[in-house]
Amino acid sequence: MPAFLSFLFIVICFTFLCSIPALTATLRCVPDSQRSFALGIQWIVVRTLGGIPGPIAFGSVIDISCLLWQDKCGEQGSCYLYQNSAMSQYTLVAGIIYKLLGTIFFLIASVLYQPPPESPQSSCESTDHGAGDVSDLPVKDLPEDGVIVNLHARL
Fold first, then answer.
1. ∠16-87-15 over CA atoms, to 5°?
2. Which strand (E) or helix (H) includes residue 104?
């Protein structure tokens, strides 16, 4: 039992560790203006893929470990008796397979990812516009006598 609980703890930790890389990958792959839309689409896909085929797949894995099925008029009903050791092994193997598939897909995405080329307007240096000194900046609406008055001092 302690070995199972330790393994379960590790699996749960890795499950939660995958959520941040998925979020980061989504945010890095789309332009800034489409990030909220991309996160919405990501959650729709995650909920759809996890909510529909997931229970069906695990249900079939659980059904494999059934020892005695209910029989109603020649039709198979629900399971009366499960082989607990087989069910635990099958669900563990299925969980490991799904985690390995997820890890493989993350690794493939990591290898195939090519960051977009940085545009000259998005870099920090491009906002400088070559102005080296404050005196080089264009000034509008200077007073006629050339003296700048602190407007807050008059209040």
1. 5
2. helix 84-112
Supply the pLDDT for residue 108: 92
pTM above 0.85, yes or no: no
Domain locations in the chain as residue ranges: 1-51, 56-108
User: Are 149 and 143 spatial neighbours (Cβ–Cβ below 8 Å)?
Assistant: yes
User: CB-based contacts of 64: which residues, under 8 Å, 6+ apart?
Assistant: 86, 90
User: Residue 64, CB half-sphere, CA atoms under 13 Å: how many?
Assistant: 14
Residue-level pLDDT at 26: 84
How far the first Cα of the chain sits from its last, in Å, is: 77
The 3-state DSSP class for residue 142 equals coil
Total residues belonging to the chain? 155
How do residues 113-147 score in pLDDT, each as one tens digit? 787 777 666 545 544 455 455 555 565 655 565 55
- Name 90's Cβ contacts closer than 8 Å, sequence gap at least 6: 61, 62, 64, 65
